[in-house]
Structure formats: C-alpha cells, structure tokens
Design a protein that fits this description.
The chain has eleven helices and 15 strands. The chain is of the alpha/beta class and 422 residues long. It folds into three domains: 241 residues, Metallo-dependent phosphatases (Purple Acid Phosphatase, chain A, domain 2, 4-Layer Sandwich), CATH 3.60.21.10; 91 residues, no CATH class; 85 residues, no CATH class. Helix 9 packs antiparallel against helix 11. The longest helix is centred in the last third of the chain and has 26 residues.
Length: 422
C-alpha cells in the first residue's frame, strides 16, 4: 500500500477583504488575489508531487458567487489537475453549501463532490482506498452526521471527509458537531476535517486533522497557512504541513518598557520585525504591531500623535529583501503608575478601568456582556459600519484585545489632555 494525497480545506476563494480602503498604501490587489494564488500553489504542488488525489474538506468558496468568474477560476484549476492525472474529492461546507451557491458550473470528470442528501462512499479501483463523505445541503447543519458514516471497507485505507466544529472551536460556528471519540470509534484510518482555520492535529491514531485554511484573510488569522501532504506506506502514515499562503499575517507584541529614546525604539522594532519574518523572502508579510509597556515614549506620543506608528512603518520600509506591510499599529503605552492612579479615581473613568479588571478576571461575564447588550446594539447599525473590524466576540483572545483597546483609548485621551494642560 503506497500512495500520496493532499488534504486542504477552507480555501474561501475570492473572500471579500473588508475595509482595505481605510489603509493608506495597502497592497490591495495582492491581498485580494491571495486566495486565488494560494489555490494555484496548491494545484502546482499536487502536480509537482504527483499525488494520487486531493481532498478538499469544504468551504471552497466564501459565499455565493457575485458572477461566474469565481466558479470559472476554480474550474480552471480543476482542469489543470485533470490534465495532470490528479483526482479530487470534496465536500461542501457551510459557506459553499448546496443552498448557498446559486450559480452552477459543471466540474471536470476528475472531481467528485460528495452528496448532500446522504453519506456517500467512493472506492478507488486502482488503489486500496475508500472515501466517505457528505456535503452540507444548507448553511447550518446542527446534527451529528458521524453515526451515518458506514463501517470501514475491509482491506482498504478508509478516509472520512467532514466539515465540522467537533465539540466546538473558538471563533467558529457550531456545525455538524461531534466528538473525537465518535470519529475514532468509526474505525477509519484518516479523518480529513475542515471548518477550523487554525491547523490542528486532533488525534494521531487514527489521524484526525484540521489543516487550517489555505490562506489567512485578515489580522486574526495569523501564522503559516497551507495544507497537509500525506504519504501512506506499509510502515504507516507520514504527514507534513506544506505552507502555501502568499500573504502571511503576523501579530507582533512589543513591550518597550526599557526603551530609552526614539533611536532605541527603531532598533528594537527593526530587530523584532526581522525575527518575525525569519528571512522568508517568498511572500508578503502583513504585520499588526501592538506597542505595550510603561514607557516615557508615551509622553512623546501624547505630544505628537502618530510618531511611534510612523517610526514603525519607516523601519519596515528599511528592511532588506522581505516585502512587509504594516497593517496597523496599536499603542497601549502607559506612564509609570498611570493606570493604578486612574483606576483609583472616584469617577466614570475609574469605574471603567475597574470594570475592565472585573471582566478580565471573569471571561464568562465579559462574554455575556459583549455577546448580548453590545452585540445587539451593533446589529442595529448599518452593515457598512464595521466597528469591530473582524473581531469575533466568541473568541476569548479577541475579546481581551477589544477590552484592552477600549481601555488604552481612554488612557491615551487622558494623557493627551494632561499634556495639553501642562
């Protein structure tokens, strides 16, 4: 038994990137074309590695096509694979379900899309492989489909394709929920999962994998993105993550408490950017920088707002080789004892900081507040006012960032007023 396959998911081809026009100098075309270029890279890898087949575990598209160009582009890539002798097996997820994509194009014969009515099994004629899968009929699937998956085919390497949140993953809607124990009990050799955008090896035996999405789409989808290259031999399964993202998102947390002046700050930023990039010259790096700490530079920023952001962007321009775009710089600096003093105040500002402390200590209470009163208020605003800028209120880390950003804004305003009064 010797064969090779690629496992990818969540391509989100032509995913709309909101709010790019807010950023002066943003590489808009490179960002908008990133999902397409990542798919082209996936196809090239499949052909170069001479894989026997490619698995796509849902969410090929991000939404219904605005026109046929998105579908034609995907079909063109599948034709490339057909001409190279690579078969494709795919399930549809919540974003590209039968009930979501209204326009249709016939796919080439090398592509098998699993049924949305029932679990379907495909047994390969030239390889001892049996694949089992089911596509989403509509955007929301609330039931556990795993009990419907058939028993493994004897003498075959059995693969299950499923678009699922398992028992729940932060930042992802709960679709086709199931337990890892249910997957392992089915007796398959490999579960090719989709839906979760962060790569995760859920289990080694049997191998259960979320490969993550093929291309990060915004600042909350950080780090390498790609697919898994899987080789099956008599000795077992060998799997390797293969990065395919053409734009890589980073979040750089930089504590500058010990920074003495602007020159020192620039050196620190330059060194930190070099460490983040790790000499990677192949792709565009989009970096969101968070400046934290108790620093005298806070006084400079209060006197000349935007100074530190400008220095960060200048440092990025001076880097040799890698193409870097600083997506955003968030300044969360405080002067010594500033926060403690403000939190002790007997006014609305002091109450706000004490509320932040309470919410940080009790994430459940914070989540309830953010997901109910605040979320209901935001839902009433026009859709073009994306005040949360892609923040998922169900994600604990993003929720913490939202609270800290609000606090930092208040402290910065107070500091600015203090400087103006002095």
């Amino acid at each position: 038994m010797n064969f090779t396959f690629l496992h990818a998911a969540d391509l989100h081809v032509d995913s709309p990137l909101k709010g790019l026009d807010r950023y002066d100098g943003a590489p808009v075309e490179r960002l908008r074309n990133a999902t397409r270029e990542a798919l082209e890279g996936l196809v090239a890898m499949a052909l170069d590695a001479r894989v026997d087949f490619l698995l796509l575990a849902g969410d090929i598209y991000d939404r219904d096509w605005q026109d046929f160009h998105t579908g034609l582009f995907f079909r063109e890539q599948m034709v490339r694979l057909e001409r190279g002798g690579v078969r494709v097996f795919m399930v549809q997820g919540n974003h590209d379900a039968q009930g979501v994509i209204s326009r249709q194009l016939p796919l080439p014969e090398n592509v098998t899309v699993f049924s949305s009515r029932t679990v379907q099994t495909v047994q390969l004629e030239d390889l001892p492989v049996a694949l089992h899968g089911r596509s989403f009929p509509d955007r929301a699937v609330d039931e556990d489909w795993v009990p419907e998956y058939p028993a493994p085919v004897t003498g075959c390497f059995n693969i299950g394709l499923l678009h699922t949140s398992l028992s729940g993953r932060a930042g992802h809607d709960r679709y086709a929920p199931t337990e890892v124990t249910a997957l392992t009990a089915k007796g398959y050799d490999y579960w090719a999962l989709g839906h979760v955008h962060h790569r995760e090896v859920v289990c080694e035996s049997p191998r259960i994998v979320f490969p993550g999405n093929l291309q990060g789409r915004h600042a909350n989808e950080i780090g390498p993105k790609g697919c898994d290259l899987v080789r099956v031999t008599p000795a077992g399964i060998q799997s390797e993550f293969m990065p395919l993202d053409v734009v890589r998102w980073h979040r750089l947390e930089l504590d500058i408490s010990d920074v003495e002046d602007v020159a020192h700050f620039v050196r620190r930023v330059t060194r930190a950017l070099d460490e983040v990039l790790e000499g990677d010259l192949q792709r565009l790096h989009a970096v969101r920088v968070h400046l934290t700490g108790t620093s005298a530079l806070r006084n400079l920023e209060a006197r000349q707002p935007g100074t530190l952001e400008a220095q960060v962007r200048a440092a990025a321009q001076d880097l040799d080789g890698p193409q870097v775009w600083v997506e955003q710089v968030r300044v969360r600096l405080a002067r010594p004892l500033e926060r403690t003093q403000v939190a002790a105040r007997d006014d609305a500002v002091g109450e706000l900081l004490r509320l932040v402390d309470a919410m940080m200590e009790n994430p459940d209470e914070a989540a309830q507040f953010l997901q109910q009163p605040l979320a209901s208020l935001l839902d009433k605003l026009p859709s073009e006012l994306d005040l949360l800028d892609g923040v998922d209120l169900r994600d604990a880390q993003q929720m913490r960032d939202l609270l800290l950003d609000a606090e930092s804004t208040v402290l910065a305003r107070l500091s600015d007023e203090g400087q103006g009064a002095s």
